[in-house]
Amino acid sequence: MNDNPPEVTVVTPAFRAARWIEAAVRSVAAQREGGSVRVRHLVLDGSPEDDGTAAIVARHAHPDTFYERRPDNGPADAINRGFASAAASGSEFLAWLNADDFYAPRAIERSVAALRAAPNAAFAFGRCPVVDAEGREIRRFVTRFKEAWHPVSCHAAIRTLNYVCQPSTLIRRCAWDAAGGALRTDLRAAWDYELWLRLWRRGGATRVPGRAPLAFFRWTPGSIGGAGYERQFAEELDVARADAGRLAPTSLLHWFVARGIVFCYRRMNAP
pTM of the entire structure? Predict the structure, then answer.
């Protein structure tokens, strides 16, 4: 084990998450294997009642795993609160993992290495397949479409389409602080994309090399990506326009791309 491994704070916002939370917690715990990184895991539960999440987290007790249940103003509010604790702990890197998503083995170690190799980058991202409730990969064409943008990743590209899948990201804490140190809680679906745009002004992103996934995004009919995709793409267009200008070429391209994606999602979700 390294004497002073880099410290990462991972925040998991939870709300009535007992069905999914164990896979997320176990995947975070697995990131500690080998001792190359120190992982603090904060599970912040906004559920009004105990649905069993606390007991599940307790089954995977670790000195660097913390659970708290208290009201919040949605997941962005919980993440902001969790990231605020990272400064006091000395965490160099930040991530959030939603309760229904989960990491691949060595995801954090690989992401830290990518950021160490690109010292000016604000965050790192990589592959993130979509899976269903049972963890089976679905919507492969959605994943491949986003990955097609990875080789041309730049500020103009991210303004045109959000091809960064949030569970596969790791953020440098100093860049988070420089970008304002908070997710926008007035947004309900695009607060991650709005953050990527701000971080691009603080050094941009680097891709984690290799074909192995970093994380898995779980799609269900009740998730934001399932039931709330139209609002998500509308908000993403708004924040892209705010970043680049309403009539900027990237904003116009974003409008066309978003319309096409929404059309495809409607067809996929049709009974």
Answer: 0.95
